[in-house]
Amino acid sequence: MANSTNTVTVEQTGSPIRRPEAQRATLIGLGLNKLGRRSTLEDTPAVRGMIYKVRHLVRVVEA
């Protein structure tokens, strides 16, 4: 089993306005809903998949 202490921080850089509902829901699932907001999450394949789905709206922040 992988080490669960690994985290990834994402920052919202794009607006969900005029985006599909699925992308809006993914941002909310990542804990983001306003530009510039950051969220630190456990680094799992599911979270990485969510980041990939909205990669044009977020950026991964290096610690």
Automatic annotation (TrEMBL):
Signal peptide: none
Region of interest called Disordered, as start-end residue ranges on this chain: 1-20
CDD domains: Ribosomal_L30
Keywords: Ribonucleoprotein, Ribosomal protein
Domain Large ribosomal subunit protein uL30-like ferredoxin-like fold residue range list: 9-58
One cellular-component annotation, GO: large ribosomal subunit
GO biological process: translation
Biased composition (Polar residues): 1-15
GO molecular function annotation: structural constituent of ribosome
Subunit structure and binding partners: Part of the 50S ribosomal subunit.
Record-stated family: Belongs to the universal ribosomal protein uL30 family.
Protein name listed in UniProt: Large ribosomal subunit protein uL30
Origin species: Ancylobacter aquaticus
Gene name as annotated: rpmD
